[in-house]
């Protein structure tokens, strides 16, 4: 019996050893998961504590740990300007206070409605801080946020990108380049130099201001490799995700291999699209000396208990440098010619040639492109003012079908008039019928308007500017 007893004891001892070893392995294997679970649980409890307390104020620019996040379901198509602070609805019963100026927002809404357009949008942003001051859309049927839609062709707004790339490549800016044709289309014939046909000449700045397609097309083929132009477009925001308080769908960018199509793309004929938000971002970057800054439209978010769960950071945020400062300066000076003697002259001056914005230099770029199949006319105006010490950047898109009443350049001129008149500039008169703050100058007589008809100055001859046939923005 004794030997049998000793064998059982050994077996028991071995089994106990194996059991202890297995337990140790199990603990070692599961310990990281237990620790992670504890960390997640601690985080969850701390977030729940913040939501329940409701009184703890998040630091500026930080999202409170609430579920869903503070900016969830922010609806910028339903901006309310009836009170001193503009607001918009968000998830549940949350109230979002906006950086939008009620006066500018109402003016943009009114001017778009007056235009009787198929669809359109206005965005205005403070150059120094990136605060959005106006965010307005009109669209047929169901309300859409046209500001964010990147479906419209860039048209000649893309010439800002091409001009930037040409400056970077050292193309002489004071030299004149002769051309002929290309007013509303570009063919291979327009790209070939011909002394008999090339009757007009222009510098790069003149070509930008008057939106001369042939000059940009030829210079792009001669001086810009495709990767250079593509890189400039990407740096300026094309086909990129741009940080903002709501999701911004990226614009599109196609760089064709075919020489003719590449030249047409550089001049603004199709191949790229843009949203009004991205367009104002482009103007804002040039106005800020080549720095792309983050735009913001949300001032703060209040939950259903009126507790603050988000506040806008007060410091300006630079996202990146997109252009050298000297390049941005040169492009800005070119853009001044658009209003001074280019495609926006008539909309920024009355019939006597008097400026609606006296002593204020404006930098801008028009864009016009027609989609013949749907009889759709796209017009853009993108720019900033004052040109040398920028305060605001603005983009306007107007989409017309069939007969049209106004173009984007007309709306842009009127919104800028409202901005400067509201600031108390006594030399600037706002368009008639626009509500102004009490501090703004009182207008006794209804001023001329910068409508497509060219204003209403009495007993004055219309100022005449001698442009060549290609000075019209045309289809590009």
Q: Can you tell me about this structure?
A:
The chain is an alpha+beta fold and 476 residues long. Helix content is 33%, strand content 16%. It has helices at 2-53, 102-114, 159-168, 188-191, 204-209, 213-223, 226-235, 259-267, 276-287, 325-341, 408-422; strands spanning 87-89, 95-98, 119-126, 132-138, 152-153, 177-179, 200-202, 273-274, 291-293, 298-302, 308-311, 318-321, 363-371, 376-385, 392-401. The strands form five sheets. It has a five-stranded antiparallel beta sheet, sandwiched between helices. The chain has a four-stranded antiparallel beta sheet with strand order 1-2-10-11, with no helix packed on it. β13 and β14 (376-385) form a beta hairpin. Mean pLDDT is 85; it is low at 1-10, 25-56, 440-449 and 453-473.
* Top-tier CATH class of the domain at 119-138 and 145-294 and 318-471: Alpha Beta
Shape: globular
Number of helices: 11
Ends distance: 107 Å
Write out the CATH superfamily name of the domain at 119-138 and 145-294 and 318-471: DD-peptidase/beta-lactamase superfamily
Amount of helix: 25-40%
* CATH T-level topology of the domain at 119-138 and 145-294 and 318-471: Beta-lactamase
Rg calc:
30 Å
* Share of residues in strands: 15-25%
How many beta-strand segments? 15
Biggest sheet, strands in spatial order? 4-3-15-14-13
Question: What integer is the average pLDDT?
Answer: 85
Alpha-beta classification? alpha+beta
Q: Which sheet architecture does the biggest sheet show?
A: 5 strands, antiparallel
Low-confidence stretches: 1-10, 25-56, 440-449, 453-473
The CATH architecture category of the domain at 119-138 and 145-294 and 318-471 equals: 3-Layer(aba) Sandwich
Query: Helix-strand pattern, N to C?
Result: HEEHEEEHEHEHHHHEHEEEEHEEEH
């Amino acid at each position: 019996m004794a030997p049998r007893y000793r064998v059982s004891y050994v077996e028991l001892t071995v089994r106990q050893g194996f059991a202890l070893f297995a337990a140790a392995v199990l603990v070692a294997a599961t310990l990281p998961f237990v620790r992670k679970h504890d960390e997640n649980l601690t985080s969850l409890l701390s977030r729940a504590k913040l939501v329940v307390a409701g009184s703890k104020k998040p630091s500026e620019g930080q999202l409170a740990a609430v579920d869903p996040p503070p900016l969830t379901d922010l609806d910028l198509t339903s901006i309310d300007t009836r009170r001193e602070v503009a607001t918009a609805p968000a998830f549940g019963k949350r109230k979002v206070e906006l950086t939008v100026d009620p006066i500018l927002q109402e003016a943009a809404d009114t001017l778009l409605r007056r235009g009787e357009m198929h669809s359109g949008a206005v965005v205005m942003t403070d150059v120094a801080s990136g605060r959005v001051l106006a965010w307005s859309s009109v669209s047929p049927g169901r309300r859409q946020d046209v500001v964010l839609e990147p479906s419209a062709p860039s048209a000649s707004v893309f010439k800002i990108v091409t001009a930037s790339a040409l400056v970077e490549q050292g193309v002489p800016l004071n030299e004149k380049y002769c051309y002929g044709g290309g007013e509303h289309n570009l063919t291979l014939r327009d790209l070939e130099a011909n002394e008999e046909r090339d009757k007009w000449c222009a510098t790069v700045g003149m070509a930008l201001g008057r939106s001369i397609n042939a000059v940009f097309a030829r210079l792009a083929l001669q001086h810009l490799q495709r990767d250079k132009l593509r890189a400039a477009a990407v740096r300026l925001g094309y086909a990129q995700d741009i940080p903002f308080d709501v999701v911004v769908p990226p614009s599109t960018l196609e760089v064709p291999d075919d020489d003719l199509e590449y030249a047409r793309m550089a001049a603004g004929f199709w191949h790229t699209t843009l949203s009004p938000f991205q367009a104002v971002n482009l103007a804002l970057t040039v106005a800020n000396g080549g720095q792309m800054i983050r735009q913001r439209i949300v001032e703060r978010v209040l939950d259903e208990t009126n507790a603050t769960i988000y506040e806008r950071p007060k410091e300006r945020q630079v996202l990146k440098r997109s252009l050298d400062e000297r390049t941005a300066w040169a492009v800005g000076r070119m853009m001044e010619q658009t209003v001074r003697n280019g495609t926006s002259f008539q909309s920024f001056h009355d019939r006597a040639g008097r400026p609606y914005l006296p002593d204020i230099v404006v930098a801008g770029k028009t864009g016009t492109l027609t989609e013949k199949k749907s009889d759709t006319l796209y017009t853009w105006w993108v720019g900033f003012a004052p040109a040398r010490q920028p305060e605001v950047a603005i983009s306007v898109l107007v989409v017309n079908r069939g007969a049209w009443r106004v173009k984007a350049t007309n709306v842009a001129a009127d919104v800028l008039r409202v901005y400067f008149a509201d600031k108390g500039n006594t030399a600037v008169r706002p368009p008639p019928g626009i509500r102004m703050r009490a501090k703004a100058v009182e207008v006794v007589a209804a001023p001329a308007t910068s409508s497509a008809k060219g204003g209403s100055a009495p007993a004055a001859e219309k100022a005449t500017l001698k442009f060549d046939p290609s000075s019209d923005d045309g289809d590009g």
